[in-house]
Fold:
Amino acid sequence: DGGITQSPKYLFRKEGQNVTLSCEQNLNHDAMYWYRQDPGQGLRLIYYSQIVNDFQKGDIAEGYSVSREKKESFPLTVTSAQKNPTAFYLCASSPSNEKLFFGSGTQLSVL
Amino acid sequence: DQQVKQNSPSLSVQEGRISILNCDYTNSMFDYFLWYKKYPAEGPTFLISISSIKDKNEDGRFTVFLNKSAKHLSLHIVPSQPGDSAVYFCAAGTGANNLFFGTGTRLTVIP
Structure:
C-alpha cells in the first residue's frame, strides 16, 4: 500500500539524549515535512525538504536536525538542545506545492 | 501570533443535522485553504481544499466556503454522521511549504 510510515509510534527520551524519528514514504513525493503538535495548539513546521540533499528550517527548527539522503526517507533527530521535546510529531509529504499527506505520528515523551 | 484561528474548541451536533466549523485567518496573501480531519493518535487526513479564486467547493457531504473580504472560511458537513466525530483542522497559506494550521475543533456527532 502507498503511504507514509512513521516509526516508532511511541518513543521515550532520557535527559541529554538524542533520538531519531523515522519517516518513510513510497508515494514518490518530492517534498517532505516534519511538524510538531502540542496539546491545544496547531501544527508547527520544524523542517521541510523539497528535494534530496536539500532541506529548509521551518518555524521551530531549534533543537532539531534532519537529513534527506534518499527521496523516500526524511528522519528527524531531536537533540539534547531541544529542552521541551514532549510532543506528537507528524511527518508529511506532498507531490506538489499543494496538499500534504500525513503519517500516523510519533508520540515522544521525556523520562 | 496565530495566523489561523479556530475559535470554537468543540462542537456537538445531532446526527443528521448540519455541522458548521469556522476558521479565521489574518494574512490577506493566503490563497490556499484546506481542511483536515484527525482521529486520536493518528495523522490528519485531507478532507477538502479551496483556492482563493473560488468561494465554494463541494465534495459529497462536505462543502467549504471562503469569504475573502472577511478572511473567513467554514466547513459544512451535511448530514452529519457519528463517524464524522473527530478533530478538524483548517490550514491556510500560499502552498504546502507555507501552511499555517489552526488549533482544531473537536466535533462530536450524537447518534
User: Anything to note?
Assistant: The CA atoms of residues 82 and 109 of chain B lie 5 Å apart. Chain B is about 0% helix and 60% strand.
